[in-house]
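Entry, Tuesday afternoon. Goal for today is a structural model of the target with pyridoxal-5'-phosphate bound, before we commit to ordering more compound. Inputs were pasted exactly as handed over by J.K., no edits. I checked the ligand SMILES twice against the vendor sheet because last time a stereocentre got dropped in transcription.
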Amino acid sequence: MSRAEIVIDLAAIRHNVARLREHLRTPMMTVVKADGYGHGLVEVARAAREGGADWLGVASADEALALRAAGDEGRLLAWLIMPSEPAEELVAADIDVTAYTAADLEKFAAAGDALGRTPRVQLKVDTGLSRGGAAFADWSNLVALARILEAEGAIRVTGIWSHFSASEDPTDPISALQEKVFGEAVAIAEEAGLRPEVRHLANSAGALLRPSARLDLVRVGIATYGIDPAPGVEGSPWADLGLIPAMTVRAELALVKQIEAGAGVSYNHTWVAEEPTTVGLIPVGYAEGIQRRGGNRTEVWIDGARHPVRGTVCMDQMVVELGDASIEPGAEVILWGTGADGEPTAQDWAEASETIAYEVVTRIGGRMKRRYVDTDVDTEQGDDR
Ligand SMILES: *Cc1c(COP(=O)(O)O)cnc(C)c1O
């Protein structure tokens, strides 16, 4: 066994994409940004394509180019290209790029001109998140310029899109408002003469909880990885979908020892043993992306049972109380996994650490190795990042 590793089940990714696509009945963009939410950019992308992903979505130019370098040839959208980043390579690699401003449009058009090809450009409108995208007040001017450039053959507008602010909360009226504003933005673009292939708005929670927001394409990230985007929401289809968490984080128990009553555990003694007990040492810490807030709040799975993490999570290590369970050094510790046998999940860690499961899985790494398994065909390959 490896001292500490992240095991990714590619069959789970494939299954989740196929299942989501079937349930949503909408073309699927699988979002693989941030190293596939900590699961591995290229490997997840490949499994997602096998599961039926029509598009892949990433934030940065580097992520998009890495997918092309790895051989992905399908439709691929990038949405966070910097003013300082040249566009030629992206256009040459047949990546759909996102424009927020007139300057973006001019840059993409110039890149197409230099290459003698027509860049595929999507326009993003801000419908209320106030993050990326053109402000609604600037939208008419942006689409007018896009239409002029398109008529000249300098670009092709392939999509119009926006992003929800609170799709995981069906009681928040902002989503309905954003849908309405998006409809208006699309109408303005169509009046200007644009005929985009795809109009899209929904992320995982939007796609699952708001059928009206599915439109031509859904951009599904977190659900791909088997993590519920909207835990605890009444009426959510999640429980019936049978999606499988793809990530298991495991480590070898470094040490087992007795401590006395009154012994304080880990830095600053935030936990003190009330009676003599046994503790074990887990060789991962916040340098691996373990949530430091998980100290004294989370549990890990050893030998078929949950055991509480005691004291502060340190940089390289953390302590688990074993009590009177007979557990030897070298035992397997599962920090989180599918939950199928009762082991903690990334969602459990998120709740205990007062964050969201997105952050729990995306941050994990550090010195841990990632290993891929495929429960369908039972092949394994290491990834020495
Ligand atoms: C990350 C992201 C998504 C995916 O969101 P999930 O909630 O993980 O499904 C979709 N669209 C955009 C613009 C994003 O940044």
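The first strand starts at residue 4 and ends at 9.
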